[in-house]
Amino acid sequence: MRPTDKPKTEIPAALRSQDSAFLEKNTRRRKQLSRWFYVVCIMVALISVAILALLIASIVYQGQSRLSTDLLTRSHSELDIERSGMLPSILGSLAVCMVCAAAALPLGIGTAVFLEEFQPTSRFLRWWHGFIQINISNLAGVPSIVYGLLGLTVFVYMFNVFGKITVNEYSGWELMGATHSYQVLTLDPKIAVKIPTDSADVQRIRMTGPGYVLGPNNEWMQIEIWDPKSGDPRPRDPSKRRRTVKLGQAGSLQTEKAWYYFRLPFDKSFLAAGLTLALVILPIIIIASQEALRAVSPSLREASLGLGATRWQTVKNICLPAAIPGIMTGAILAMGRAIGEAAPILVVLGSLVAKSTGPKHLMDNAVTMPVLIYEWAGRPEPEFQELAAAAIIVLLVILLAFNSIAIYLRHRVQSDSNV
Predict the structure, then answer these.
(1) Co-location of 294 and 383 in the same domain
(2) Shared domain check, 389 and 273
(3) Are 348 and 274 in contact (CB under 8 A)?
(4) Which of 107, 272, 296, 312 has the fewest CB atoms within 10 Å, measured from its CB?
(5) What is the per-residue pLDDT across 387-406, written as a single tens digit (0 to 9) for each?
(6) What is the pLDDT of residue 125?
(7) How far apart are CA 389 and CA 372, in angstroms?
(8) 3-state class percentages of the chain: helix first, strand second, coil last, to nearest 5
(9) Measured over all CA atoms, what is the biggest interatomic distance in the chain, rounded to whole angstroms?
(10) Cβ distance 399 to 66 under 8 Å?
(11) 304-341: buried (b, 16+ CB within 10 Å) or exposed (e) per residue?
(12) How far apart, in whole angstroms, are the C-alpha atoms of residue 246 and residue 126?
């Protein structure tokens, strides 16, 4: 042994056995804690499933007697409660969710691609990028009622920029799809003629002279005026009565709206409700899409850029196809939340449930399933309580059906991309 070498000290056998016993004891303790943690997780999961099963069983027991064709084919009725249905609310929820998906999905996915794939290099833009990212994360936890108030201000009233909305008065700008006319009754009370007008400022007019009007079948016809003070007898011929109007007869403004009727502001329409729900789910879609894009292997991007592809070509042909399953998962979760939201709809559309049809045009009001369930559940009549439980079952079935379709499409896209 050289003089500079230090002598090796051996660990006594007693210390080695003591360390071995300590390690063995520590291992047993960690395994025991792991088993206890596993048992606790299983118990929490079973309790959650049991509570969910109990709630579903209670709802099914309470609402099974109301599951009939009337529930799916009829509308809400105060007089015939037994035959009330939810068809307008189903159509309204589908219309609102279509607007919500059309607005939120492209905007959310595009924002996620910009924030994740096109990160800036300058100091100011990096700060701005981080500021936007933090606010998106914070918006995901904002209560939905706040979004309802935001939608009421932005979409329903549009800050009153186009004029204050008042009852039975037109304000704002009508851009397309509206035909205005004054409806006037003839001497035959069953026949009404229409006088077309380009303005909706005057709500009522009075007939002062003859002229050309539109008949019941939208054909042009000439009307005559009968003045009771002139001494002329009231016409008795039925054909002449249909073409004669009493002098001073009032005509009220009527508006025929096509399905593409569009105006500003949106007022209490399903379009405003869908855009409000888009604000609710937008942070969820952005965050989920960002996580899906982060999961794409950096080597794929580097290989694409190394072959001469631009940044956009890499995103379009490599990153987005690989991230589609994760993006669709986020979209499924977001739309599942949107279809069950009631608070923003109550703020934007109100609690109107007495509607016999679905939306007829873009600016039409709508009833949604959560609002209808909320209204039925708050009624004192036991029939409405049962109808609310049956409506919850229908809502769950529709939600599960849409989620199943979306999950199938996600797996189909994922299997195609793997091939």
Answers:
(1) yes
(2) yes
(3) no
(4) 312
(5) 999 999 999 999 888 888 88
(6) 87
(7) 11
(8) 60, 10, 30
(9) 145
(10) no
(11) beeeebeeeebbeebbbebbbbbbbbbbbbbbbebbeb
(12) 74
pLDDT digits (tens, 9 = 90+) for 355-370: 888 899 999 999 999 9
Domain termination site, one of 213, 231, 264: 264
- The reply to whether omega before 235 is within 30° of 0 (cis) is no
Q: What percent of the chain has pLDDT over 90?
A: 41
Q: What pTM was estimated for this model as a whole?
A: 0.84
Give me 340's structure tokens.
Answer: 């069950």
Q: What gap in Å lies between CA 215 and CA 198, rounded to an integer? A: 18
Residue 4 has a pLDDT of 53
Segment 148-168, tens digit of pLDDT: 999 999 999 998 888 776 655
Pair of tokens at residue 231:
């001494």
Q: In this structure, are residues 286 and 107 in contact, taking their beta carbons and an 8 Å threshold? A: no
- The number of distinct structural domains making up the chain is 2
Do 367 and 92 touch, CB atoms closer than 8 A?
Answer: yes
DSSP letters of 138-202? Answer: HHTTS-HHHHHHHHIIIIISGGGTT----TT---SEEEEEEEEEEEEE-SSTT-EEEEEES--S-
Domain carrying residue 150: 69-160+267-418
* 34 domain residue, yes or no: no
Residues 366, 96: contact at Cβ < 8 Å?
yes
Residue 344 lies in a domain: yes
Q: In 215-328, which ranges are E strands?
A: 220-226, 244-246, 250-264
In angstroms, rounded to a whole number, what is the distance separating the alpha carbons of residues 363 and 268? Answer: 8
Which of 173, 352, 174, 158 has the alpha carbon at shortest distance from 257? 174
| One domain, residues 280 and 199 | no
Q: Which residues 6+ apart lie within 8 Å of 337 measured at CB? A: 280, 281, 284
Q: 410 in helix, strand or coil?
A: helix
Q: Which parts of the chain register pLDDT below 70?
A: 1-19, 165-171, 416-419
- Show Cβ contacts of residue 3 under 8 Å, excluding neighbours closer than 6 positions: none
pLDDT of residue 280: 94
How far apart, in whole angstroms, are the C-alpha atoms of residue 54 and residue 216?
Answer: 58
The three-class DSSP label of residue 213 is strand
Within the chain, how many helices (H) and strands (E) appear?
13, 7
Asked if 309 and 396 sit in the same domain, the reply is yes
User: What distance in Å separates the CA atoms of residue 216 and residue 194, rounded to the nearest whole number?
Assistant: 8
Cα 57 from Cα 396, distance rounded (Å): 13
Q: Tokens 């051996």 map to which residue?
A: 10
